[in-house]
Amino acid sequence: MSGIQRTTVRPTLEAVAARAGVGRGTVSRVVNGSPKVSERARDAVLQAIDELGYVPNRAARSLVTRRTDTVALVVSESRRRIFDEPFFADTIRGIGAALSETGLQLILAMAQSSEEHERLARYLTCQHVDGVLLLALPAGDPLPSRLEAMGVPTVIGGRPVGVDPACYVDVDNRAGARLAVEHLIARGRRRIAAIAGSQDIGAGVDRLAGFHDAADPAGVAGPVAYGDFSEVGGMVAMRELLAVDPGVDAVFAASDPMAIGAMRVLRERGLAVPGDIAVAGFDDSGAAAHTDPPLTTVHQPTDTMGRRMAHLLIARINGDTPLTPAVILSPHLVARAST
After folding, report:
1. What does the angle CA 139 – CA 143 – CA 145 come to, to the nearest 5 degrees?
2. Residue of 291, 289, 298 lying closest to 334 (CA atoms)
3. Quick check: 280 and 335 in contact, CB under 8 A?
4. pTM given for the model
5. Under CATH, what is the fold of the domain 70-171+303-325?
6. Domain spanning 173-299: which superfamily?
7. CA dihedral 35, 39, 40, 44 (to 10 degrees)
8. pLDDT tens digits for 231-247?
9. Half-sphere exposure of residue 181: CA atoms within 13 angstroms, side-chain side
10. 56 near 48, Cβ under 8 Å?
C-alpha cells in the first residue's frame, strides 16, 4: 500500500495540477497527448493522475480535440446474415483487433431500408464518430460520398458498384473465381454451371466475371443461376440449374454457404459429390472443412481485410493520405474432396 488515500469525490484537473505542481494547462496537454510538455512535467502529471485516480472527462476532452475516439461500422445487410455468415464475423474480428490496439471504440450499425440509411446518415454526420467503415455496400449507395462531403473519413470493405470510393479494401474476387473454375477444368469437368451472388455487390459481379474468364475460352460454361450468398439461396439456385441442364458435371458457387446449399440439394436428389457433380465454393469458411465431403473453396483473408480497413481509417482520421487508397488482397485455392 502506498498510504495515499483516494478521495471519494471525483478528482478534477485542478487537483491533478496542484498535486503535480504544474499549471492546469500542462495537465490538459498531457491528458490530450500533446508533445509540448517536458518529460519531467509529464512524469509528475502521470504520477498525480495515478495517485488521485483521475479519469479524464471524455466529453470535455472531445471539445478540445474534436475527436470522439469512436468508429462506426455500417453493414447494409440483414441481421441474420451478419451474425450467421463467416465473412462478416471474420472481417469484424479483424477490425476489432486492429482498433483495440489504438483505444478506439467500435459501434456496429445495421441499415437496409432507405429510412434506416437516412437516420444513420444524420447520426454519422453530426460529429458522433471520427470515421466510418462500410461493408456490403449496395450499388450506387450515396452514403460514402455524403459522409466524405461532411468531412467524415470512410473506408469501404469490398469494391462497391456504381460508387467511386475514397478508400477501399477488397479481395481479388475475379482472380479467385478463375482459380476455382480452372481447378474444375483440370479435374476433367466439361459442363460447369455457376451459382452467382447478388449483382449489386462488387464481389458478386467480379466472381461471375472470373467464372466466365476461365469457363468461356475452355468451352465448358454451363448455365448460371443467381443467389444471395446464403445457403437457402444456393439451394434454390441448384434446383434451378438441375431443371435447366441436368447434364452439368460441376458447379462453382460464389460463396461457401451457397455451395453448401447446393450440396444439400444434390444429396436430396441422390447425386454424388464429386462423383456425379463436383462443387467448389468461395470463402474458405470454417464450415467448408467439415462438410461431407469437405468443400473445395477459395480462401479470402477476411481477418486481414478487416485489419487493413481499420488501419486505413486510422490513418485518414489522423490526417494522413494513404499511399494506396485501394488495397486488393490475393486469394488462393484450397482443394478438398468435393472436387
Report:
1. 95
2. 298
3. no
4. 0.77
5. Rossmann fold (3.40.50)
6. Response regulator (3.40.50.2300)
7. 60
8. 999 999 999 999 999 99
9. 32
10. no
